[in-house]
User: Which sequence fits this backbone?
């Protein structure tokens, strides 16, 4: 039996009716608003630092005298700023708001979420500063030092408990598929990050097992946080904007469980032909290829929605962002499956092409979807339309162009680099000259991303300022106008 | 799928299963690997690094060298690493037993370093590369690390210190200064020169064709079968298919 799934399911037979959207938005105002505000700031920062790192890949003399700006420190800072600054906070903010809306319950734990957000940002800033000051752990994707990671965990616990509380207090009958993905992501991340840090950094396993733990974490993060959130957000936004229900709830369940079962196994293919046992990398290949099936299911699930109401979806910026983001995610799934096959992997291994794939998932799939969701949610949470509506379309153009440019340039550059590396008669320096023009295009792409990030951040700041002014100015005027001397003041 | 606990348990099972399979299982499989005694030399492999090289590993980590340099050599059938002279055999898990953290690296914007210490680089060459790689390879994209060196003004006519870098003829050497490596540079180069994953033992043997001359290593076929076990019974053509139990 295949029943459609709609984001507006009927309320359960319960004495308490679902809260109205207005009430929910009001309850989300400070916590979700703060999370999205911080996330958009980190998106801008990640774009700027990412552009700096990209420049240093082809112009190594830039800022060479400052140890803290060397490529090996700037690059992890750019990565963590995007992943932990934008990715985690935007993901949490979006999940909080969408889960509150889908559950028909107001958000509780506002103070805790705000405190958690401040803690998270403090920990991240200290951690990144530490990486810049030579304190990185040397384990790729797990660079933050232990003290910072502990602060991050405290912050995460203070935030992520509450969407689950909202989920438990839901006042609607069916759990909408988006909520499966959000709940799964919220549970997966702390487990992955804790186990990854413990076994690769804090109490490291012996020898290359550290790399196995790191690869497991990284791929788990890609699927369990970025993948799940991308799908969850797209499955909410597209039917919501178009008013067309998803064709099948069972297909959504099929995609969800298959992705959960296969997705977390794909990590070790990062160390193809490396010092890990061959069966581990083979497992990674099998899992990555099998992950294509849930991707197809998600594609089939969303296609009819987009197909039947293309105009409605594309008329809203968030709809465009969500379609582009989900498209990037499905493309990533297909390309990752092709990339892990050994004839291809022998060429692309260690090259720009692997960077292109990671970029397609992080900045393409998750980045675009989450930016779209920010544009969708921020006005409702702030209680006012974003003042520069025209900028939103520009951000869409800049961000999609940047992702496309980055992925194509690094993909082609990576193939050239890989072919060169495979030719032992070609001197290494000659191989390097082949890919440098493509690295230059990466700089252009990251600059576009930074400009896009600025548009989002400026828009959010302007909306907050306008809203604050609207709230404060009448009160201030009332205070400042001379009143009758014996006016009574009432509490 | 309307039950929170069921959802939670299902996802937990998926994550834990992958963790058991990819991390814990391999840990029980080869987490207790031990050093190998090379009978010919009586030394154990991998050999311990001296204190200076251990400090150098910290400099390597702190500056993120592993974002551009790998420390892993793929087998002859899976890439041109051996043909490029980056090693005479593929690297295996046992090569990294003493590394904390293990910095395998994922990108080759620079060459592989797993056997840098076995290649024919002089100490001065390595200092020059760190100071300014373009002195040796114009248009190299390796960052400069001037902060690892001290530039001292040199009085006209005075001879530079014996510790100072010797610049190659015709290179754009800085005028009237001598460049002295700081303690960090000494440590980093000591670490780089300690990078050798070349010992041959029961788990690995070099591919039939000897590595390229740039490797700077002579043939070592003599001791390959010494600790013989079934891996040596691998097909003669099985280049690179030797490691991993």
Assistant:
């Amino acid at each position: 039996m295949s029943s459609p799934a709609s984001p507006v399911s009927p309320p359960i037979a319960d004495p308490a009716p679902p809260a109205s959207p207005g009430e929910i938005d009001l309850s989300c105002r400070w916590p979700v608003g703060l999370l999205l505000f911080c996330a958009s700031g980190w998106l801008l920062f990640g774009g700027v630092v990412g552009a700096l790192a990209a420049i240093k890949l082809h112009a190594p003399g830039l800022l060479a005298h400052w140890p803290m700006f060397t490529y090996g420190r700037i690059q992890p800072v750019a990565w963590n700023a995007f992943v932990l600054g934008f990715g985690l906070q935007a993901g949490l903010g979006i999940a909080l708001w969408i889960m509150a809306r889908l559950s028909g319950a107001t958000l509780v734990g506002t103070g805790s979420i705000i405190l958690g957000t401040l803690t998270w940002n403090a920990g991240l800033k200290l951690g990144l500063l530490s990486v810049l000051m030579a304190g990185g752990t040397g384990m790729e994707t797990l660079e933050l030092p232990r003290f910072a990671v502990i602060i991050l965990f405290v912050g995460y616990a203070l935030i992520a408990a509450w969407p689950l509380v909202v989920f438990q207090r839901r006042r609607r009958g069916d759990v909408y598929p988006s909520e499966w993905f959000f709940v799964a992501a919220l549970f997966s991340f702390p487990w992955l990050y804790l186990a990854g840090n413990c076994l690769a950094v804090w109490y490291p396993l012996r020898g290359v097992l550290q790399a196995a733990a790191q690869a497991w974490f990284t791929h788990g993060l890609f699927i369990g946080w970025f993948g799940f959130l991308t799908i969850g957000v797209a499955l909410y936004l597209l039917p919501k904007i178009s008013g067309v229900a998803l064709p099948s709830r069972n297909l959504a369940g099929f995609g969800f469980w298959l992705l959960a079962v296969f997705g977390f196994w794909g990590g070790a293919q990062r160390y193809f032909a490396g010092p890990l046992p061959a069966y581990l990398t083979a497992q990674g290949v099998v899992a990555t290829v099998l992950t294509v099936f849930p991707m197809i299911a998600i594609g089939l699930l969303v296609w009819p929605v987009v197909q039947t109401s293309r105009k409605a979806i594309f008329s809203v910026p968030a709809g465009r962002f969500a379609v582009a983001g989900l498209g990037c995610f499905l493309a990533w799934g297909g390309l990752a499956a092709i990339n892990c096959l050994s004839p291809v992997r022998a060429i692309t291994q260690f090259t720009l092409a692997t960077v292109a794939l990671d970029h397609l998932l992080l900045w393409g799939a998750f980045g675009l979807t989450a930016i779209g969701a920010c544009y969708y949610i921020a006005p409702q949470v702030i209680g006012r339309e974003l003042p520069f509506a025209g900028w939103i379309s520009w951000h869409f153009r800049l961000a999609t162009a940047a992702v496309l440019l980055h992925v194509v340039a690094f993909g082609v550059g990576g193939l050239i680099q890989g072919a060169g590396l495979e030719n032992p008669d070609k001197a290494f320096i000659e191989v390097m000259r082949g890919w440098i023009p493509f690295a230059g295009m990466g700089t252009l792409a990251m600059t576009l991303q930074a400009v896009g990030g600025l548009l989002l951040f400026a828009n959010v700041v302007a909306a907050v300022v306008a809203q604050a002014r609207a709230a404060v100015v009448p009160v201030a005027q009332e205070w400042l106008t001379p009143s009758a001397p014996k006016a009574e003041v009432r509490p | 799928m309307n039950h929170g606990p069921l959802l939670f348990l299902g996802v937990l099972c998926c994550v834990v299963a992958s963790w058991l399979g990819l991390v814990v299982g391999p840990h029980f499989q080869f987490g207790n690997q031990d050093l190998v005694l090379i009978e010919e030399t009586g030394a154990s492999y991998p050999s311990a690094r001296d204190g200076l090289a251990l400090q150098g590993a910290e400099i390597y980590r702190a500056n993120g060298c592993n974002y551009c340099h790998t420390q892993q050599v793929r087998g002859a059938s899976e890439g041109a690493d051996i043909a490029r002279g980056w090693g005479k055999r593929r690297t295996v898990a046992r090569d990294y037993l003493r590394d904390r953290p293990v910095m395998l690296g994922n990108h080759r914007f620079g060459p592989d370093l797993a056997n840098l210490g076995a290649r024919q680089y002089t100490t001065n060459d390595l200092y020059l590369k760190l100071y300014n790689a373009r002195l040796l390879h114009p248009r190299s994209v390796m960052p400069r690390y001037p902060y690892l060196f001290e530039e001292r003004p040199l009085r006209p006519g005075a001879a530079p210190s014996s510790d100072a870098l010797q610049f190659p003829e015709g290179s754009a050497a800085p005028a009237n200064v001598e460049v002295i490596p700081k303690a960090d540079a000494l440590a980093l180069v000591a670490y780089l020169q300690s990078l050798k994953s070349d010992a041959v033992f029961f788990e690995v043997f070099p591919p039939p064709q000897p590595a390229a001359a740039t490797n700077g290593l002579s043939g070592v076929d003599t001791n390959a079968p010494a600790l013989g076990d079934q891996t040596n019974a691998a097909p003669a053509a099985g280049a690179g298919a030797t490691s991993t139990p």
